[in-house]
């Protein structure tokens, strides 16, 4: 007699019913496990899709940033307009000033040209740009030399 797999004749009717219930529950559990595996596979497929779409969006944004920098370096006003139109920059004076202050990929002469315009918006951006600089605890010479290449902006010697 095999205790793990007894012959049906060796089982009482109650034991046979219990064995059938156990087999039925086992089958249900295996089906549930397979459903969970399928759902997990679907989730992983959706994640892969999402990551691909996100990478595509990031590549597109980087391309737009590159185009905007080129436009800015050729014509600062048109470059700022491009950044705003493509939602890479808000039209807020402070945002524009911070963007110019960071100057990532922007020509310093083009920044100086933009800030040197006498348009009221440009003057407000200039004021906000100056406010971005921290001159506290610097003597006059240090403050004038504070930003490397400040003379390249067209503001001095």
UniProtKB/TrEMBL annotation:
One of its GO terms (biological process) is regulation of ARF protein signal transduction. The keyword Coiled coil applies. Keywords: Coiled coil. Residues 54-145 form the SEC7 domain. PROSITE patterns: SEC7. Residues 19-53 form a coiled coil. Pfam families: Sec7. It comes from the Eukaryota. One of its GO terms (molecular function) is guanyl-nucleotide exchange factor activity. This is SEC7 domain-containing protein. It comes from Colobus angolensis palliatus (Peters' Angolan colobus).
């Amino acid at each position: 007699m095999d205790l793990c797999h007894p012959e049906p004749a060796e089982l009482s009717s109650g034991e046979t019913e219990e064995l059938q219930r156990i087999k039925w529950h086992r089958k249900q559990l295996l089906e549930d496990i397979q459903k969970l595996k399928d759902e997990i596979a679907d989730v992983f497929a959706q994640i892969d899709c999402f990551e691909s779409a996100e990478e595509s969006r990031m590549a597109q944004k980087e391309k737009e940033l590159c185009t905007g920098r080129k436009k800015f370096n050729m014509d600062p006003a048109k470059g700022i307009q491009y950044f705003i139109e493509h939602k890479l920059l808000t039209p807020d004076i402070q945002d524009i000033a911070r963007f110019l202050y960071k100057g990532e990929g922007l020509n310093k002469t083009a920044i100086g040209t933009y800030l040197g315009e006498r348009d009221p918006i440009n003057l407000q951006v200039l004021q906000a740009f100056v406010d971005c600089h921290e001159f506290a605890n610097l003597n006059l010479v240090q403050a004038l030399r504070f930003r490397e290449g400040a003379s390249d902006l067209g503001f001095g010697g």
